[in-house]
C-alpha cells in the first residue's frame, strides 16, 4: 500500500504547540521557525514566545504561504507562592487590550531585570553584559537565555546550563527575583483573549505531590484548561506522570517541543504521541 502523500487527508496531523522565535529567546526568525516546522511535517504550529506576541504577524504571513496552520500563542511568566511558572496561551487574540497591556508591562519588567543581572555580573568582573544581550535580542524580549549565551561566548562557562548553575539560577550570583503577575491574573489574560491556558512543562518545577495538587487546583479554578504532557526531552515515565495529572484534574493534554534553536533543543514536530486516553487540547481551539 503506498504511503500517503503530503496532501493526502489520511495523513495524520502533527501538532507542535510550544516553540520560540527571535521575538523572545529563540535563534530563528518567526518566518524561519514556521518554515522549519513545515519542513519537519508539522501541520499545526503555535508560536509561544515569552511574554510577547510580537512575532505572530510575521509567522502568520509565512504560515499562510506555506500551508501550515498557525495558532497564535504566548508563554506568560507568572508566580504562585513566590515561584515562577510558565503558562501557555493558545488561540489567543493578541489585540485583546488587557493582554496587550500586560505584554508591554512585562517588557519593562524584563528590561529592569536585565539591567540588574548585568550589574551583578559586573560586580563579578564580567562587564559588558547589558549591551551584548540587548544587541543579541534586537527587537525581541531580553531573557536569561541571552545572558547564558553571553557567558558562553565570553568563555566564562562552557554551556548554557552551566551559566544557569553558576550565575543565573535562583540563589546564584547574578540571580534577580522578578515580580511576575499572579498566576490567576495571567490565566485571566489568556482566557479573556479567547485562548486556552496550558501549564507548561509541569514536571520541571520539581514540586512535591502535595504542592502540585494545590497548584493545579488553583490553575483550574482560575480557568486553566490544559497541561503539557509531551514536551522537550521528556521520557516515557514522565509522560505517564503528566498524563495522570491531566486525568486527575480533568485537564486536556498538550504537546510541544519547546524549540528554541537548531541542534540544541528537541526538533520541531519530533515528539512522542499524546496518550490515547487524554483529550487533546487542540480540540478546545476554535
Structure characterization notes:
- With 286 residues, the chain is an alpha/beta fold.
- It is built from nine helices and eight strands.
- Strands 1, 2, 3, 4, 5, 6, 7 and 8 form an eight-stranded mixed β-sheet that branches.
- Helix 8 (209-222) links the parallel strand 6 and strand 7 (226-231).
Topology at a glance:
Elements: E1 15-16, H1 30-39, E2 44-47, H2 56-66, E3 69-80, E4 83-90, H3 97-123, H4 129-137, H5 144-153, H6 160-168, E5 181-182, H7 183-192, E6 196-199, H8 209-222, E7 226-231, H9 236-249, E8 252-256
Parallel strand pairs: 1-2, 2-3, 3-5, 6-7, 7-8
Antiparallel strand pairs: 3-4, 4-6
Helix pairs in contact: 1-2, 4-5, 5-6, 7-8
